[in-house]
Give the backbone structure.
Amino acid sequence: MKLIADSGSTKTHWCLIKDHGEYEYYFTPGINPFFQTEYEIEDHIRKKLFPQIGASSVREIYFYGAGCATEKQKETLSGVFEKIFDFEKIEIESDLLGAARALCGDLPGIACILGTGSNSCYYDGQKIAKQVSPLGYIIGDEGSGAILG
């Protein structure tokens, strides 16, 4: 089975794709390794997600999340998942790359996130080619829920 996550600081939307093609959706509070410790994230997944899905048959994990743009944050999350799941493949990337892949597939385009925080980029069909540097969820975050709220 594959587990795919779209995570912001407010909520995480999980999709479990079963081997025969059926899928199930789950929601948990947000996960952001920029603001949460490894211990907090592990506790969160064990208490909020694990009881819903179990872990024995998750073989691939694709996590697209806020705060996952640097190798340090990716390693933090990878370490957490290694403690909980017995997977064969893991990919941890930014929420913006996840949005671009979901929106554009393998075609070039512009992708935006307008959530608690906002972000935008030009996606070349494979990777983020150009991006306005996000300054956090308060400074320079016009259009976000933090500003509009």
In short: Residues 106 and 126 are 6 Å apart (CA to CA). The longest strand covers residues 11-17. The chain has four helices and eight strands. The two ends are 38 Å apart (CA to CA).
